[in-house]
Model the fold of this input.
Amino acid sequence: MVKKLLFLGCYLFSVACSAQNEDLGAQSIHRFDKSLYHYIQEKNDDASFQDPFLAIYGDNILNLGKPDSLGFKERLKTYFSEPTLLQLYKDEQEKFADIAYIQEELLGAFAILMKEFPQIQQPKFYMHVSGLNQSVVVSEDVLSISADKYMGADYPLYQSFFHDYQRKLMKPENIVPDYILGFMMANFPFKGREDVLLDRMIYEGKLRYILSRVIPQREVWDYVSYDKEEYLWCSNKQSQLWKTIVGSKHLNTPNYLLTSQYLKQAPYTSFLSTESPGRVGIWFAYQIVMSYMKQHPQTSLLQLMQLEDYPQFLKDAKYKP
Done:
């Protein structure tokens, strides 16, 4: 099994290439989290807890080894016997007892995605609990999200582990967007210069634009994981901010640290105002791609993802804040 790691903000995306070839389909979200919870609570027996996702879960998420290894299920139960973790699991089960609203939006989004990207195999959707580890796990045929990372910004346990700016993103509303982002990042990995802001921005902007197409009922600020106030702050200052970015020659100067300052989760964006929200580069990325698609409305989402000449993309976008 080959393991590759992708990052979206503070969230860790674990992409594992599975050897399974079974056509799993995707009619609903498989509640692996419920099955496992019942198992560790000894409400079902070993024979009833057989799931192909268990191999990825045990070996790649919890690092407990493979399900057929000696003592695996004892290690699994021991892992979740820790009181704080067990309480987290219990709270997750209560928080997400009913996920009909999540499932409806997710399946609607993937109905569009599969039409736009017919060459990609549709995954089977899962939900799991990782103990605040990976948020999204993608294999060849499975797409799973760790629901315990989306309990809401005010969830008490988060106070000890995450900063305010991180907790703002750890809410149920981000589950479907993160499912989609993780899936697209796995199937269309970044190709470009990792240390060049322009390349990274346009890639991130394309992902956010796809969100706007497959979950169009959301507010515009949801596509860049902002709240309304943050989005409007950038909108009101976009001309000034863009002049600063371009004038400082940050767009094309190879500098990994500088690039990350514009894209990573943070209380504000370094090199800009301390009043700014974090990830201003993501906000601009989305504006650039929206401008490009207005100029080239016949471009399909597949064609958009295949565009990798980033300087030419910026020229063709005719973005003028």
User: Anything to note?
Assistant: Confidence is low (pLDDT under 50) at residues 1-26. The chain is about 45% helix and 10% strand. The longest strand covers residues 2-8. The first helix runs from residue 32 to 40.
